[in-house]
Amino acid sequence: MQKTTHTLQDTAFNALLIHYKTASLRTSGLWLLFANLCFTLFLFGRHHFQLLLDPVSKVAIPATIFDKLSLIIIVFFIIALSLVRYIRGMLPAMALAFVTGLYWAVVFHVMVSNDTQQQLVFPLFCMLIFTALIALYPSTPILYSFTAPLWLSLFVHLVFLRTTIPILEVAAMIIASGLFESGRIMLNRWFVLSVRRECDNALLVSKLDDLAHNDPLTGVANRRQLDSQLEQLIAQTELQGGTLSLIMIDVDFFKKYNDHYGHQAGDSCLISIADCFKHVVRQPTDLVARYGGEEFVVLLPNAGTQDAEVVASRIKQSVEKAAIPHALSQVSQTVTVSQGIMQWAPGMTSLELLKRADSALYQAKHAGRNGYCVGE
Ligand SMILES: Nc1nc2c(ncn2[C@@H]2O[C@H](COP(=O)(O)OP(=O)(O)OP(=O)(O)O)[C@@H](O)[C@H]2O)c(=O)[nH]1
């Protein structure tokens, strides 16, 4: 039982985690693509910045292949920005992240190969990976799809394409990697923890709601829910017209049952009887409630006396079919119930309706039990 509850809790938690991951990645993915577009625009505009900042030297940054493809790249980012909300599933998201990361890896390669632009690479690399970290930390596979080509291109360049390995730059890259990975783990833990808290709170609220509205033994509605539902139904029927009936049910010779079989068996008997009631009413409009002790009430909206009598006879049959042995009953060898039916009439309060149903039940008891009487 406890294992089942744990599995249900885990399932709820996993569903919530996926929901929040998707929602968060959808928003932050947009932001990341926008940041990428800004970085790209900066790169394409850097010739003009350079000339603006240093007009005397007139040293222009040489154009690369990317400057020639600038329009295509900007259009790619704009399309990706407008498509991001339609992305469903992990693979397409990873593919988009990978293509974007690959684009930057190639950009870096071109920049590193071009001597005058090398100083831009490391700051741009750091900005990109930390921007990606902020946006994509809820999903490690998507984050790594984006950053893996970047790490790889820088690593290959530092280690294989240089004549001597630049120790300082390698050290800076290792520090950046350490900060990135520890930051990712920390942010991810906070994310999972906050979703876990949210899930626990939701479960707690649902448990409290259950306790506030349902009877803990039988699981049917409790007196509080019955009272509020009855008031609502009376107000509704008064306003819109229509019919409303109520059946009050009492288990026959239940004191004797308890005395003979014990209180625990009495509890099990009440659970089985409540199950019988639940199975014979219309769902979800009718309401089965525990009125108190071994008394139950069935509320039947849009039902007149005749409909209620049909339900009462179904209840009788269902309880008989359950065949719960009752050695001390004077009317049967199994547990039986007596029922009082009352139809609501205009002007009748909920208290009056319950009182009249109770009188009808009293009549049914006097008439020999294991049956029902209709109140007036
Ligand atoms: N096991 C159990 N017994 C309960 C519970 N609530 C009430 N009872 C018992 O139900 C019995 C009700 O007894 P009575 O009101 O005398 O009614 P009865 O014995 O059914 O007699 P009749 O209604 O005349 O047929 C009492 O013994 C209560 O202790 C419960 O939650 N569990």
Shape: elongated
Overall pLDDT: 89
Whole-number count of domains: 2
Order of helices and strands: HHHHHHHHEHHEEHEHE
Strand order of the largest sheet: 2-3-1-4-5
* Low-confidence residue ranges: none
Bound molecules: guanosine-5'-triphosphate
Beta percentage is: 5-15%
Largest sheet: 5 strands, mixed
Supply the number of helical segments. 12
The radius of gyration over CA amounts to 36 Å
Please count the beta strands (DSSP E, at least 2 residues each).
5
Helicity range: 55-70%
Q: What is the structural class?
A: alpha+beta
Question: What is the first-to-last residue Cα distance?
Answer: 47 Å
Report what the structure shows:
With 376 residues, the protein is α+β, with helices and mostly antiparallel strands. It folds into 2 domains: 2-205, no CATH class; 223-374, Reverse transcriptase/Diguanylate cyclase domain (Alpha-Beta Plaits, 2-Layer Sandwich). The protein has helices at residues 2-53, 65-68, 70-83, 90-113, 118-136, 140-159, 167-213, 223-240, 254-261, 263-280, 305-322, 350-366, and strands spanning 244-251, 287-292, 295-301, 337-343, 372-374. The chain has a 5-stranded mixed β-sheet, with helices on both faces. α12 (350-366) links the parallel β4 and β5. α6 runs antiparallel to α7 and α9 crosses α10. It is elongated, with a radius of gyration of 36 Å. The structure holds guanosine-5'-triphosphate. Residues 217, 250-256, 258, 263, 266-267, 270, 293-294, 365 line the site of guanosine-5'-triphosphate. It comes from Rahnella ecdela. Its EC number is 2.7.7.65. This is diguanylate cyclase. Pathway: Purine metabolism; 3',5'-cyclic di-GMP biosynthesis.
